[in-house]
Specification:
- The structure is a homodimer of 119-residue chains.
- With 119 residues, the first copy, chain A, is mainly β.
- Chain A has a single domain, classed as Jelly Rolls (Sandwich).
- The two termini of chain A are 15 Å apart.
- Chains A and B meet through β1, β2, β4, β6 and β7 of A and β1, β2, β4, β7 and β8 of B.
């Protein structure tokens, strides 16, 4: 039961598209990640994902539209929905999703992180 | 799949100890709540709870110690652990917890909210 300081955790890594686990509860994980540029189009068969913008802004692209998110905003992407985060500049994001969630969902490529570091 | 702006949602209510539902995913709810003063000592038999400070500061009191949390910090209180949030001044908090979580846990009193409003 230690508290977690988000800014302090974010200062510990500089990599992009490389989620770090900072908390866990009820089978869900809290992750921090830095986005830059476009990610991979993908979906998650069994997991809803929440993206909360800690600092910065990015576009959550769907096949039929785009939602722009800024600091202090979040979006929930339901399971099965194809999406692609796209950040023009670096953005810091907190994720909430089931522990089993793979970052690239149904796609496996050079961006896939099979195991995540806890920081 | 609409985005949620935390500040905009917080502007919609002024009550204390009155959680509002602003999102749901994987059977978990995202809630916003304003704390002021001491809450009720309680625990949750089956739910872990996450408290993320959006703005302000408060003490999470446990029977054997107190953890002080400020803006941008969070704590996970595991199921079964007695706790009491206590805020010297108003603080805005985002909660993540299972949909079934009762705010006062194992205690039912005048602070209990049996049903929660979605905003």
């Amino acid at each position: 039961m230690e508290k977690v300081n988000i800014a302090e955790k974010l200062s510990k890594f500089a990599t992009h598209w490389d989620p770090k686990v900072v908390g866990e509860l009820n089978g869900q994980m809290v992750k921090l990640v830095k986005f830059l540029g476009p990610f991979t189009w993908h979906s998650h068969a069994n997991e809803d994902e929440m993206f909360y913008v800690v600092k910065g802004e990015f576009d959550m692209e769907f096949r039929d539209r785009t939602v722009h998110l800024g600091t202090g905003e979040f979006i929930v992407v339901p399971r099965g929905v194809e999406h692609r985060p796209n950040a023009q500049a670096e953005v810091h994001v907190m994720l909430f999703e089931p522990a089993a969630t793979l970052n690239t969902g149904n796609v496996v490529n050079e961006l896939t992180k099979a195991t995540l570091q806890r920081i």
